[in-house]
């Protein structure tokens, strides 16, 4: 039973956490509107409300840029900085550890999903571009 695909490695990217963050952001906006509070844009600023999902998403984006999964937002170039990617992923893991017991179930799931996706991408990158010896 030789499966020709058995030797192939596949990367599965879970996009659910992105949709979850967007849904949480929309729910927070609706809650702010229902309470009669001005949004950041209405209050004269363009910054979104600080939140744990926003912080984790920002860090995850930085890690993806460092891995070359996403082009650098300023230069538009794909750049790889493995050490920076490792540092940002470790920072997210540290944040997960330090916030344990103080998160919602959705935030806990978000950490799990984001870290899993980033770690799998990091491992795949390491396999594609092994460090020089």
Element layout with pairings:
Blueprint: H1 16-34, H2 52-67, H3 82-98, H4 105-128
Helix pairs in contact: 1-4, 2-3, 2-4, 3-4
Distance between the termini: 37 Å
Distinct helical segment count: 4
SSE sequence, one letter per element: HHHH
Q: Helix amount, in percent?
A: 55-70%
SS content category: mainly alpha
Total beta strand runs: 0
Mean pLDDT: 81
- Report the sheet-strand fraction: under 5%
Q: How would you sum up this structure, described in words?
A:
- The structure is a single chain.
- By secondary structure, the chain is mainly α.
- The protein is built from 4 helices and no strands.
- Helix 1 runs antiparallel to helix 4 and helix 3 runs antiparallel to helix 4.
- It starts with 15 loop residues before the first helix and ends in a 5-residue tail after the last helix.
Question: What does this entry show, briefly?
Answer:
The chain is mainly α and 133 residues long.
Which descriptors apply to this entry?
single chain, 133 residues, mainly alpha
């Amino acid at each position: 039973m030789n499966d020709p695909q058995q030797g192939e490695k596949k990367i599965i990217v879970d996009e659910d956490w992105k949709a979850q963050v967007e849904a949480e952001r929309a729910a927070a906006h609706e809650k702010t509107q229902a309470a009669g509070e001005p949004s950041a844009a209405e209050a004269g600023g363009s910054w979104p409300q600080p939140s744990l999902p926003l912080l984790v998403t920002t860090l995850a984006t930085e890690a993806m840029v460092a891995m070359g999964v996403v082009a650098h937002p300023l230069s538009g170039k794909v750049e790889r900085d493995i050490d920076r990617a490792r540092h940002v992923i470790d920072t997210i893991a540290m944040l997960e550890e330090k916030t344990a017991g103080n998160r919602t179930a959705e935030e806990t799931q978000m950490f799990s999903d984001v870290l899993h996706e980033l770690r799998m991408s990091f491992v795949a990158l390491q396999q594609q571009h092994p460090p020089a010896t």
